[in-house]
Amino acid sequence: MSAKIYPGGLLVLFLILFSCKSDPVKVAATAAQERNIIIDSTITAFQKKLLAQQIDSVFSKTKFNGSISVIRNGEKLYEKQNGFEDFKTKAKLDSNSVFAIGSVSKQFTAVMILMLEDEGKLNTGDRVSEFLPEFQNKQFENITVHQLLNHTSGISDFGSGLHSKPGESFNYSNKGYRFLGDIVARVSEKTFDHYAKELFERIGLMHASTANSFEGNHLAGAYLGNAVRFEKIANMPKRLASKEISVAAGGILSTASDLHRWNAALFGGKILKPETLEKLKTKSSETAHPILGKVGYGYGIMMSEGKLESYLHSGYVKGSPSLNIYYPETKTSVVILSNIADESKGKNVIFNPHKDVKKIIDAVENAVSELK
Q1: What is the pLDDT of residue 7?
Q2: Diameter of the chain measured on Cα atoms
Q3: What does the H/E/C string look like for 88-107?
Q4: CA–CA separation, 97 and 93 (whole Å)
Q5: Strands, E, within the chain: which ranges?
Q6: Beta bridge partners of 313
Q7: Which residues have C-beta within 8 Å of that of residue 86, sequence separation ≥ 6?
Q8: How far apart are CA 221 and CA 63, in angstroms?
Q9: Which of 174, 315, 316, 317 is CA-nearest to residue 234?
């Protein structure tokens, strides 16, 4: 039985055909969209193949024990876990493994401060002495929240004095971020752990926690040495909440997938107001990083100094070297986590796999930018 076409249907069909023939701009736009889809899928396939070859070689060359994953705009380009969560029992790492992320924690603390600013409860230009009594003396009274965030407060991690005059120069300070954690607790009228948990839940981080609140079964315990001769770091992760380290400066734990979610939510504008996010991303100091070279520093994040724009931060607590990178142009997120470090070889060697992977991603990002 043949299908019937009613007059109204013929009219609609005629209008569609006429509009296509009479509007070459629309035809050209559609063709361009199709070409872009083909180009994007070809580039993605190229990236996946290249990353598999290059990063797999980093795993084999360095005997890397950890997790490396790359996601672009929500699509997984590369992911691999190798080695052990527990070197004694030989329990293997997998996608649920939770790592100590060290100073990558600082961007979480910076964001919590800025969330409080968005709520109208503080301003980054405020003096810290308005919130913490220990700053109410002549030496510290003019230090601002801004200076704690970008490491220009001059506060020394050793002793009770100052490295330099507040606002004068960059001096990386874990203690400064511990004080920021104290400000979060004071201003929010909640514990730092509770305020952090609310943030994790708000953006769907399913495995992230603070050192005080970790309750999971997949902790990638931290070790010194190598796979043959290793020493387990005791009292993990509770030791990260000690005054010497502090949760706000280096005591957050996460899976690789949760750090990807964090990058997407943060830089996608789902946590902070646009103008507040801009504060976080704006270079307000700079330093010669011992691993990454010359970098700018905003609030809890570093930024690349070259043509290729990226936001990044390294982290290290005993046995747990980490690196988190986000490339805003392509919305590419790179997470490199490990749970063993041979400190006898020095930090430059400990971070060799991380540096190698960053070089690979930088090269691929530059190539993709040129192709487009």
Answers
A1: 38
A2: 95
A3: CCCEECCCCCEEECHHHHHH
A4: 6
A5: 66-72, 75-82, 84-86, 91-92, 99-100, 209-210, 223-225, 230-232, 252-254, 285-289, 293-297, 302-304, 311-317, 320-327, 332-338, 340-341
A6: 324
A7: 221
A8: 18
A9: 317
Distance CA 301, CA 314 (A): 9
Q: 190-210 pLDDT, tens per residue?
A: 999 999 999 999 999 999 999
Q: Is the distance from CB of 356 to CB of 326 less than 8 angstroms? A: no
Residues 26 and 17: beta-carbon distance below 8 Å:
no
Mean pLDDT by 10 residues, the chain (372 residues): 38 40 61 71 87 97 97 96 97 97 98 98 98 95 98 92 93 97 98 98 97 93 96 97 97 98 98 98 95 95 92 98 97 98 94 97 87 66
Run of H or E residues at 260: helix 256-267
Distance CA 154, CA 177 (A): 12
| 264 within 8 A of 74, measured Cβ to Cβ | yes
Q: Which amino acid is at 300?
A: G
Q: Tell me if the bond preceding 7 is cis, omega within 30° of 0.
A: no
DSSP E strand stretches across 187-290: 209-210, 223-225, 230-232, 252-254, 285-289
* pTM to 2 decimal places: 0.89
Spatial distance between the Cα atoms of 83 and 339, rounded to a whole number of angstroms: 9
CB neighbours of 304 closer than 8 A, spacing ≥ 6?
Answer: 295, 296, 310, 311, 312
pLDDT at position 307: 84
What gap in Å lies between CA 275 and CA 88, rounded to an integer? 49
Note the pLDDT tens digit of each residue in 62-120: 999 999 999 999 999 999 999 999 999 999 999 999 999 999 999 999 999 999 999 99
| Three-state SS at 274 | helix
DSSP 8-state class, residue 372 = -
Give the per-residue pLDDT at 38: 75
CB 151 within 8 A of CB 172: yes
Rounded Cα distance between 33 and 16, Å, is: 19
The first and second tokens of residue 315, run together, are: 């982290």
Q: Within 13 Å and on the Cβ side, how many CA atoms surround 209?
A: 18
